[in-house]
Amino acid sequence: MTATHRIRVGGVHAYDIVIAPGAHAQLSDAQWPIKAKQLLLVSDTNVAPIYAATVQAQLQSAGYEVSLHVIEAGEQSKNLASFESVIQSLAAMGARRDACIVALGGGVVGDLAGFAAACWMRGIHFVQLPTSLLAMVDSSVGGKTGIDIPAGKNLLGAFHFPRAVVIDPEVLTTLPLRERAAGFAEVIKYGALGDAGFFTWLESQASALCALEPIATARAIAACCQMKADIVEADPFERGKRALLNFGHTFGHAIEAAQAFGGLNHGEAVAIGMCCAAKLSESLFGAPVQDRQRLERLLAQFALPTRIPAELDPAKLLAHMRLDKKADRNGLRFIVWDGIGQARIAEGIADADVLEAMKAD
Ligand SMILES: NC(=O)c1ccc[n+]([C@@H]2O[C@H](COP(=O)([O-])OP(=O)(O)OC[C@H]3O[C@@H](n4cnc5c(N)ncnc54)[C@H](O)[C@@H]3O)[C@@H](O)[C@H]2O)c1
Ligand SMILES: O=C(O)C(=O)C[C@@H](O)[C@H](O)[C@H](O)COP(=O)(O)O
Ligand SMILES: [Zn+2]
Predict the structure, then answer these.
(1) Which domain range does residue 146 map to?
(2) H or E stretch covering 344
(3) How many separate domains does the chain show?
(4) What is the pTM of this model?
(5) Ligand nearest to the CA of 51
(6) CA 180, CA 194: separation in Å to the nearest integer?
(7) Where is the 3-dehydroquinate synthase N-terminal domain (predicted)?
(8) Same domain, 200 and 122
(9) How far is the C-alpha of 282 from the C-alpha of 356, rounded, in Å?
(10) Pocket flag, ligand 1, residue 135 (CB < 6 Å)
């Protein structure tokens, strides 16, 4: 599948996800449901030098006034200082309520730019042009926007839905290998949490996907976007089943926070987190050990880590988990599984079991 593929995320905040090779170089034809004349294009120091000029020129030729805001690349920029800098750019360009933010980058740019859009004048439109695999399969879809603070991951944020998501798989050719692997962690997550058939397909296509073979890659992106669209449409504000998309994230976010957002990247931390969640599921609910081993093997095929780094203290990670957004007055809640493709929410889990799940075998 290399032709244009369109997925509708339905509901009150409906929008289209368009997956089309070359799409970011043809934005002058894009028909977005936005009122804007003024656009703020937000990107980062890795992506902007490669892609911003083309995108900006395309948008200008479509009749928009485009200002550019570039943040330092990396998770450590998904913070209050960068948020303020985007807001200052909106003020400097005199952005009205009918302005629109266009996020050109990975999940860091998308989450930050989306949050700025949620806050500016209490909410303006935004469009996602994801450039990392992770952003294409996960962060650009679903309207979770936000930033990190030292106490924890994504602790400041808002649900604010994009008006359009335009995915151009061709831009993945410049994505560094480590970031490519990070994206595959979230791809594997979809199979692990809800689609055993997709998981098996990933096992069979691992080499093609590692090489970013175009047909397999486009299929994987479309499958992930479709799964996320279905879940988000059913539960946009995470009152129920959307929490399944958090498989591996309670552990993963704790790792990221413990490393002050400067160690493992999000995909790597989630990869380890999924293995911990599978271990927890085994010891508490008798989930099959073979399924955890399949998960670990598949992650390893994509050069992803599966074990908590030895220097991280599990007790400190547990402390970070107290601020997990799924926790409530009854304590922590985890996404566990009964095997590949069968995730569910579990509550009332004892600290000792969480600590045990983080131990090396
Ligand atoms: N909102 C959500 O639903 C959601 C979902 C998953 C992850 N996230 C968030 O997304 C973030 C991770 O996203 P990410 O993995 O994209 O990280 P990222 O945005 O830091 O991008 C990874 C790296 O790749 C570079 N890059 C991106 N596209 C490139 C390209 N085409 N060519 C060359 N370099 C490129 C970036 O500059 C960066 O250095 C985390 O903050 C995570 O919390 C959010
Ligand atoms: O879209 C969702 O819902 C997700 O949980 C997707 C996750 O991959 C993503 O990392 C998300 O940002 C985590 O959200 P949080 O609510 O745990 O901060
Ligand atoms: Zn994630």
Answers:
(1) 5-174
(2) strand 343-347
(3) 2
(4) 0.98
(5) 1
(6) 22
(7) 70-179
(8) no
(9) 11
(10) yes
